[in-house]
Amino acid sequence: MRFWRKVIAITGKDAVSEMRTKEIVPSVLVFALLVMVIFNFAFGARQEMMALIAPGVLWATFAFAGVLSLNRSFVLEKEDGCLEGLMVCPISREVIYVGKMLGSLLFLLIIEAIALPIFAFLFNLAVLSLQMVVITVLTTIGFVAVGTLFSALAVNTKARELVLPILFFPVVAPIIISAVRASGLALSGEPWSGLSPWLQIIGAFDAIFLVVSFLVFAFVIEQ
Amino acid sequence: MNMEGTNSASQAWAVEVQGLIKSFGSHFALRGIDLEVREGECVVICGANGAGKTTLIKVLAAIMNPSSGRVLVNGLNLKDNAEEVRRRIGVVTHQTFLYGNLTAYENLEFYCRMYDVPRRKERIHEVVAMLGMTSRLYERVGTLSRGMQQRLSIARCLLHKPAIMLLDEPETGLDQQAISMLWKALPTEGEGKCTIILTTLNLERGLELGERLLILDKGKIVYQGSTEALDVADLKEAYQHSMRVGV
Amino acid sequence: MKESYVARSGLLGLSFILLVVALYLVFIYVPTDETIGIVQRIFYFHVPVAWVAFLAFFIVFIGSILYLWKRESKWDIIASSSAEVGIVFTTLVLITGSIWAKPIWGVWWVWDARLTTSLVLWLIYVAYLIVRAYAAEEHRGARFAAVVAIVGFIDVPIVALAITLWRTQHPGPVIFQGGLAPSMLLTLLVCLAAFTTLYFLLLIQGISIKNGEGETKRLRELCSWGYNKGGE
Q1: For B175, left (φ over 0), alpha (ψ -120 to 50), or beta?
Q2: What is the 8-class DSSP label of residue B137?
Q3: By three-state DSSP, how is residue C116 classified?
């Protein structure tokens, strides 16, 4: 119980900080919208094309937005040595991992919740189904599971904004592929059974990498 | 000086370090440190940049593992009881560990939760009153002056009533007035005498504050002694000599 | 020192012999494939090189786990040397796959399941090497790289699974199918042995170079320390 109380304290602290500065959610949201618009210009605007490219555009947008948001996660801790301040506390390193991860998850879900309806509007597609919500939530969990680990790593390197995407994209490639395929199927009205192999891949990825990142996080933030 | 403490004697040592070596790959930051600090003592460690002061503090704070050697804090072995050890230690460095976007109160409340401090609100008010910062409690930390931030950092450090305080060049970036306010804020009497280990670049300050002085150079203790009978000029010569001889 | 020199020379000799034999088998001994033609011979390089690329990554994985567990730099040296050899071999996989694709399908690149997985593997190797190079301090770089290797290695099977599932739903060109005649099998096995030996040779060379660098650094440290030995 002590574990979760401290985790919530860290997540809460991030949430309060974000509400006050509005550094992450609004800017990443605007970025997501810009990316969607650019993809639209890039691929032409015919309606038949829309249905084909929509899942890809959606997940490319969320992947880029995810990287931006995750980058900020540990930058705030670097200022004034706050990460060291956390390490000096009698808390396990995993508390920091879970706390930061839940914070990033919260921010990304908020961004996606706002971006999805706008996407539906721009692309004239019915993206607001239960299937799409499940796909989005599961994939976002995968993003933050791995992304939090890599964000803590990247913040200690010389070109942090570049290192995070270089680490992040190859590793989450399987869930991006699965999310795109599953979204495509969901948008064309496939039943759950059609989606299930893709959802299984995303689910397995989430489970595996939540555990692996949890175990390995201490090595990354160690001095 | 005694190297081995017996079981009963070791209870009196707040901090006991035996043969501490810390290496990063092929670079040795600490090359065999032996040190005992009594409860309630104030030890000042001086040394040039790169001498190993910060590394020593980080090891004592249980955020860095020794490459070899033994470190005991309040009788607890650092290796097996890192979390317990951290519970009894307060750390202040030139970085404040405070979140600029949150208010002073929110920062202190956060650290109360991290340290499992009971009756948070009361304790925060208590500590802040001790440091004379009550009027600034609900301001955002980012708007406070550097000197105030450092004082708040000390407040943060005192919340959980640590038995040992580790201060790593806390006066960095502060002006004279802020520095004297800082030292006034350190509990040397009253709250139960706290053991203090303090590092500084400033030799004169060190002699004023501490009961015992250590000089660290290239990862080794090159001088150790009580501060009472010391002459600053003599010491400066010895200190600079060891610095000159190094490459 | 002497034993490792003997071992390395032995390995060099063995490697040379195997490569010469392999070249003979590939270009002279094995009959030309009826359907595809001469280009098919690249298969004898492509498959062993791909095998070595994955073997190298496995060694990086094991080395990384041991480094994080034991904290001895020798494991890190093995892991990073293997990564350097591994990325070269992975690049060769992509190049040989490309050379195959061009005459057969008329395109330089095909999103074949295995080739695409190799591309992701290549990207993970790149991430490993970049994290090492860009870390703020060297010892942290070694630890970061080890973490990347562990996450990457666990990720690659999931990547392969996702990509294979993707490709079976949208089938496209496949690089290798079908059975092997005995002469082809022999050639393949010899090439496999040749490239594996070459890998170990390059790995050991890389390790000895890094050991040399480590020694130099240690000696330099000792010299600078020697100036100020203090009360010893």
Answers
A1: beta
A2: T
A3: helix
Mutate to test the interface with C, among B1, B22, B23, B26 (most CBs of C within 10 A): B26
Helices (H), chain A: 2-21, 25-43, 47-78, 82-88, 93-123, 130-154, 160-187, 192-221
* pLDDT tens sequence across B163-209: 899 999 888 877 777 777 777 766 554 455 788 898 988 777 777 77
C126 touches chain A (CB under 8 A): yes
Q: Any chain A CB within 8 A of the CB of B106?
A: yes
> By the 8 A CB rule, do B19 and B72 touch?
no
Structure tokens at C179: 């059975």
Report the predicted TM-score, pTM, of the whole model to 2 decimal places: 0.89
What is the ipTM, given to two decimal places? Answer: 0.91
* Total tally of structural domains belonging to chain A: 1
- How far is residue C193's CA from residue C197's CA, in Å, rounded to a whole number? 6
Structural domain harbouring A110 = 2-221
- Per residue in A38-51, pLDDT (tens digit) is 988 888 767 777 77
- Burial label, A31 (beta-carbon count in 10 A; 0-12, 13-18, 19+): middle
Of B27, B222, B247, which is closest to C230 when you measure between CB atoms?
A: B222
Residue contact C230–B28, C-beta within 8 A: no
Q: Mutate which of A97, A166, A208 to disrupt the C interface (most C C-beta within 10 Å)?
A: A166
- Tokens 């001498």 correspond to B51
